[in-house]
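Q: Focus on the shape:
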Amino acid sequence: MESQPPPGGRDWDNIRFGSRSNRPAEESAEDRAQSRFVIGIAIFLTVALAYPWYSYWVSARITAYGLQVMAEQLGQELKQSESEARRQRVASTQAQAAAENRRQVAAVRVVGATRTRNGPVVIVRLGDATTGEARGRICVQAEALLKESLDGESVRVQMHRGNQPALDAGRIRC
């Protein structure tokens, strides 16, 4: 049996694999050293030219990160100082309200007290205070006027209005 050539007219048994180089087969050591030198110079110049831009990029990134961290810290400090100022403002407002309340209660005066068959009746100059706020002060002054203890008793309070009749201001328990 005769072997026939493969389709396409090529003999696949004689194919050689390998690299075909345009360079001559033998290169001298001097040529190899010079080509390595040229490659080294090219790499050095590339790095020397690229370094300033890379350095600028890194510095810009670090600066941006530093600014971001400082901005976050500043924001946190502002929030803390705002909450502290709010607490101080609330405390100041409460202290002013308490001082105003004490002033109003201190201005309360019992101008008259009597005992009736329905219990003690006191006439009071309340000013801006309410009977509930001034309860303790009213009881102490009424006890002093009546010269007896009012502990646990229900006291009828009337508001003094000068030359006009007193108005009922409610009842308190001493």
Observations:
- DSSP finds two helices and four strands in the chain.
- The longest helix spans residues 29-106.
- The first strand starts at residue 109 and ends at 116.
- The radius of gyration is 52 Å.
